[in-house]
Design goal:
single chain, alpha/beta, 2,3-Dihydroxybiphenyl 1,2-Dioxygenase, domain 1, four-stranded mixed β-sheet, 4 helices, 8 strands, VOC domain-containing protein, Glyas_Bleomycin-R_OHBP_Dase
Amino acid sequence: MIPQKVFFINFPAADIDAATHFVTALGLTKSKNGCSEGKSAMFGYGDNLQLGYHAHSMFSTWLPSRKTISSASTVETIVTLSVGSRDEVDALIQKGIEAGGKRGPNMVPDGDKWGLYSRSVEDPDGHLFEIIYCEKDCQEGGEGGK
């Protein structure tokens, strides 16, 4: 059963299987709901985030008067996932690359004054995923981080 308050993010994808391989490598879990073989797949991250990948043909039917953007050349959304350590950030980025992703830009310089450690990876369609670790000071709104 899906909790009452869930944040859904939906992306068009050229290859649902490639998208599935990528996001499961990042630790998302494939959902049983909302999936249609080769046309769409839903994934959970924690209890309140669902990420959906949908074939372009299906995605475009929801907004027939709008054009989808090319995520390979345009960034509209950054999906940010938090993890428990710097090592986990680096490990997930590497797993994403090994699962068909491409290293993305560093979103926040290492050692940022807020104590945020951040790296990014693009999925096979170019959607940008940022993996972050927020040190104790960062979580408390401090400026030390280290």
